[in-house]
User: Fold this.
Amino acid sequence: MVHSDDLDAHLRSVEEDMEYWRTKRLEPRVFRLLRKGEISFSDIITSAGSAGKHVPAPPAGGATQEEMVAALELRLGEFIRGILVASSVIGSNVLNEEGRDEAGVYDGSFKFGHRRVDGTTDDRISELDRYLGEEMLLLGCVLEVLVRKGWVTDAKLEEMLRAANPPRYENGAKIVARAWLDPAFKARMMDDAKGTLRELGFALNRTPKLVVLEDTDSVHHVIVCTLCSCYPYELLGNPPWWYKHDSYKEAIVREPRKTLDEMFRLSVPGRTEVRVVDSTSDVRYMVMPKRPEGSDGLGEEELAKLVTQDSLIGVGETVKPTVAGVS
Amino acid sequence: MPKEFTLGQRVRIKRESGGTNRRVPEYARGGKGTIVRSYGVVTGNRHDHAEEWGPLYGVLLDPAPGSSGERVLLDIHAPWLEETDADATEAVD
Assistant:
């Protein structure tokens, strides 16, 4: 069993995410535009000088390996943000009828080769950093080509990039804090999470159903998707790296209590049932952890600071108010 | 019309459904459980499946043999389920 602090497994997961976005979402679109004659190689190359306008400069390197991996992950987030915006511009201007076979997904002849980064942890970090830099350059060029082709204005592109803020787990923390404070809100959310949260302005257009699972003294919920990686992405953003790791998926359904203990150092009392919820794409789940002791009298904002990403999945506890410095 | 089930009903999970829906993990196939949630027919998930897969149920699986008793709640579409004898009664969520 890998541990949730396993740096090499974490790094491998960053690499896999990067490869997914490169080979399934960015490069297939670029190739399709090239094949259809909508853009040329020359367009891309001559845009290189202005590429930096659309993608952020690399962050300063971290001191420790953990910080460097965290910086890589942040930069990967910027890469994904740019690809989402590029896709939406390309889609609405050129590829309205885009077929999945040409997205590099199903047809073997459209598949893109993968690169695998090997060596020591330090080697892999610097190799991934360099590799991501190259992909960011390509992304910046493509975005600049879209502007030069007139498919989007500079100002509109910048606006789209700013607005493409991916959701984060803090959304869930806020919702849990409100539910702790407001029993009527909690009741409505338990009855119809999607409808209730849409009233608060969460779009949830691609979340068919959303369910919040309330932990009590008698039951502790933990979420997994053993077949793929279904998760309430639209509400909470990306899951932690280990959520997509086979080691977690296989162990949590077979030996939940032991997995929580060994992989996450979470010990659930024997009198509390551990219930694993294996998601499908139709219903996405979020855990509402128990309100921590000593949190009486705290407001919504302070309470939200006690809710961690892990506690919304059910593999971690909330933070004690004294530890969070809000008591 | 696919078959419908009721809360509290005991079900067996088929080994094969014969359809295009492959969304039942191997560990659950052939097992038994109890219907504890009912979601109806889920539409509007074209990103994942364009065709309708029948009513969806939350099935609380019986503990795996040899396990320490923890159970998995798994969402399963009706074509994967069949009635079975009521050999256990379970609390419904």
